[in-house]
Amino acid sequence: MSRSFAGAWYVLGAILLLIPAPALFSGFTNYALFFSCILGAGCLALPAIAGAVSRRGERIYRASRAVFLTLFFAFVAYFSAVSVLMAHSALRPQAEAGCDIVILGSGTDGSEPDMMLKCRLDTAAEYLKNDPDARAVCCGGKGNGKEYSEAEVMKNYLMELGIDGGRIFTEEKSASTRENLMYAAELLTQLGESRPLAVCTSNFHIYRAAEFASRAGLEDVGVLPAPTPAHILPAYWVREFFGISRMWLLGY
User: Fold this and answer.
1) Distances from the Cα of 1 to the Cαs of 4, 8, 62, 65, 241, in angstroms?
2) How crowded is the C-beta side of 230, counted as CA atoms within 13 Å?
3) Which residue, 26, 35, 32, is CA-closest to 115?
4) How high does pLDDT run on average in the chain?
5) What three-state secondary structure class fits 106?
6) Helix (H/G/I), strand (E/B), else coil: 94
7) What are the respective helix, strand and coil percentages of the chain, to the nearest 5?
8) Looking at the DSSP assignment, which residues form a beta bridge with residue 226?
9) 150 Cβ contact partners less than 8 Å away, ≥ 6 residues apart
């Protein structure tokens, strides 16, 4: 491997290791952060690995390099395509007034919503204040070791922001985005009084949320994209990339 080529891998490795730093220093953890660290460490180690392979013979080295680069650029192309899809979906315009909203869960810290969920709830609360007739469905069950269901925490937070509890309904069985929307569809059917619907979730999550809404039978659903704090966006972006890939491959 030439020095310039090795230098490129060192630079890429350093970038991948630095990406999770702001989130980690703020106390935020997510498996996607460690994925970036593993990739970064792999890039830093690659020149040494290439050197070891080259010592086994030029033919083996060239074949190995061709296979590796083919797989690497195929992954980059696939990741880029999914990222473009996510970014395009994140730019969808916010639903106009006149909708009931389904707020997707994200995570809680005891009786408080986590940072990501607060962003979603703040976005939903602003919409609910601007449309006094709108109702909200908070989605999320009780995780292992949790005292409160996610939906209960979400409802309490919205009420603290001044939203009438009579306008807020809770769906407390779900444990995933797919289940959020599936069970929310069932609850909305039971409530009757059909109104247009909008899904409130993080901006990077819009594509997958809209896809699962369609699969749950919720047609022509609008969106309420919530902002994502910049220091944790890379981690959630990578996590969502894997979530979309799983949805395409396995259906959930």
Assistant:
1) 8, 11, 10, 9, 31
2) 0
3) 26
4) 90
5) coil
6) coil
7) 60, 10, 30
8) 202
9) 105, 106, 107, 108, 117, 138, 139, 140, 141, 142, 143, 172
Specify burial of residue 172 (Cβ count, 10 A radius: 0-12, 13-18, 19+): middle
Q: Which residue from 129, 139, 103, 115 is spatially nearest to 225, judged by alpha carbons?
A: 103
Q: In this model, does residue 7 exceed pLDDT 80?
A: yes
Express each pLDDT in 142-192 by its tens digit.
877 788 899 999 999 999 999 999 999 999 988 888 888 888 888 888 887
Q: Which two tokens stand for residue 71?
A: 């797989």
Q: Where do we find the tokens 């916010």? A: 94
Is the distance from CB of 171 to CB of 206 less than 8 angstroms? no
The SS3 call for residue 145 is: coil
Give tens-digit pLDDT for 99-110: 999 999 988 888
Largest CA distance in the chain: 73
- The DSSP result for 188-243, as a single string, is HHHH-S---EEEEEEGGGHHHHHHHHHHTT--S-EEEEEP--TTTHHHHHHHHHHH
Is the pLDDT confidence value at 1 over 70?
no
- Extract the tokens encoding 115: 């940072």
Question: Is the CB of residue 227 less than 8 Å from the CB of residue 206?
Answer: no
Locate all alpha helices (DSSP H) within 93-176, ordered by sequence: 115-130, 150-160
φ/ψ of residue 138, rounded to 5: -90, 130
| Residue 61 contacts residue 50 (beta carbons within 8 Å) | yes
**Gap between the Cα atoms of 245 and 143, Å rounded:** 24
16-54 pLDDT per residue, tens: 888 888 888 877 777 777 888 899 999 999 989 988 988
C-alpha dihedral sign at 169, 236, 85, 93: positive
Q: Which alpha helices (H) appear in 133-205, and where do they start and end?
A: 150-160, 177-191
